[in-house]
Amino acid sequence: LQRIRRLADEFDFAIVVDETIGTFANINVLPAADIVVSSLTKIFSGDSNVMGGSAILNPNSRFYGQIKKAMNSIYEDTYWPEDAIFMERNSRDFLNRVDRINTNAEAICATLQQHASVKDIFYPKCNPSKHYYDEYRLPNRGYGGLLSIVFHSKQHAEAFYDSMEIAKGPSLGTNFTLGSPYVLLAHYQELSWAAQFGVAEDLVRISVGLEDTEMLQNIFNRALNATETMPKTDSEFNTKSYHEFLPSSK
Fold first, then answer.
1. Which of 13, 24, 99, 168 is deepest in the core (most CB within 10 A)?
2. Burial, 159: exposed, middle or buried (Cβ in 10 Å; 0-12, 13-18, 19+)?
3. Which UniProt keywords apply (predicted)?
4. Is 248 a residue whose pLDDT tops 80?
C-alpha cells in the first residue's frame, strides 16, 4: 500500500481502499488513502438483515476539496429509516464481535496449519506478507475473520468442503461462520485465466463467525479428518479410481 501511495503521489491519482475485510476495528488505512470505503452490510452489521456502506474522505488528501465538492453535488439521502435503525442496533457490539472473530480465526488457522492435507493458508497473521498488514494494524488488534485454504489436491478440497458442518454461501462478515468455494463462484467462466495468477480453482474461503472457539476447532478437525482417505496429490488421484478413496459406508 505504501508503494501504491508513492506511485499515486508521483503520477497524481487518488487511492480508494476498501477495508471491509480488515475492518476499522483492526486497521487504519486512512493515512495511505484518499478515500476509505467499507461495506457495512458485512461484520459491522453482522446480522445479515440490512445493507449499507460508508465512504470516508481523508481531509489531508490533496484531492479532498475536489472530491468533497463532487460528493456534495450528487449526494442524496436515500437510506430507508428502518434500515438506519437496524444498522445502528446491529453495530452496537461491533468491537466485541470483531474481538471474538479475531480469536476464532487465529484458532482455526492454527488448526489448519497442523494438517498435512493443507498446502497453503491465506491469512494475514500466517503469511510472509504479514508485515504489510502490521504497518496499518492498530495496537493490540487482530487480523480479521476471513481466510482461504488451498489443499494438496482437488479431492482434499472437495472432501473438506463437503464435510464442513457450517453454513455455506457466497457472502462474508456474518455473525455465523460461512464457507464458500470462492474461485468457482467468482471466476467460473474464467478458471484458466485465474490459474495464470496462481489462484487455485478449488480454493476454500472461510468467513469466521462468533461460535464457541473449541466448537469451531472440532468442526474443522472433523472436516480435515475427512481428507485423510483422499490422495496426497492430484497426480496420485489420477492413477486410481475415485471410489477407492471414499470411506466405507459400513
1. 24
2. buried
3. Pyridoxal phosphate
4. no
Long-range contacts formed by 123-129: CB under 8 A, 24+ apart: 123/147, 123/148, 124/22
Domain 1-91 bears CATH identifier 3.40.640.10: yes
Query: In this structure, what C-alpha cell is assigned to residue 197?
Result: 495468477
Q: Domain 93-229, what fold?
A: Aspartate Aminotransferase, domain 1 (3.90.1150)
What residues does each domain of the chain span? 1-91, 93-229
pLDDT at 233: 59
Q: Cβ-count burial of 206 within 10 angstroms (0-12 exposed, 13-18 middle, 19+ buried)?
A: buried
Cell of 30: 486512512
- Over range 95-118, report the average pLDDT: 97
Contacts of 198 (CB under 8 A, 6+ apart): none
Specify whether the CB–CB gap between 105 and 142 falls below 8 A. Answer: yes
Give the position of cell 504489510.
132
Task: At 240, list the grid cell.
Answer: 486410481
Q: What is the pLDDT of residue 229?
A: 82
Answer whether 0.90 is exceeded by the pTM. no
